[in-house]
# Entry
Amino acid sequence: MQNSMLSIAAALALLVLSGCSTPVYENQYAVSEGWRIGKVTKLVTAEEFLQTGSPRCQGMEIRPNDRFAFIQRQVTRARGHFAKVDPGTGIAVGDEVYFNAWKCDQPPIVPKAPRGAKAGQTP
# Structure
């Protein structure tokens, strides 16, 4: 009886622990916090970005020298996002990058994703 209770408790503990885990890219970009992998489809200046009239992130501070990456990711259909890009990152059109789909105040640097990165894997 004691062993079966212990087995049930252990099974429940494992179930709870596995239910609380979330896929994480490179041990720092949690899917549950909005991080995704996408492909840069276009790089534009702040002026070009403002001309698009994007309704998201109205309060985001945009300086004249800022650059933006338009990012596309595939889910059930293609979805587009944008992120500020630090000029020193070397990000180019076609690069796979990490971006936060939920936060306007995400880091301005869009880190490069290793080729073939998938949720829950580390390089």
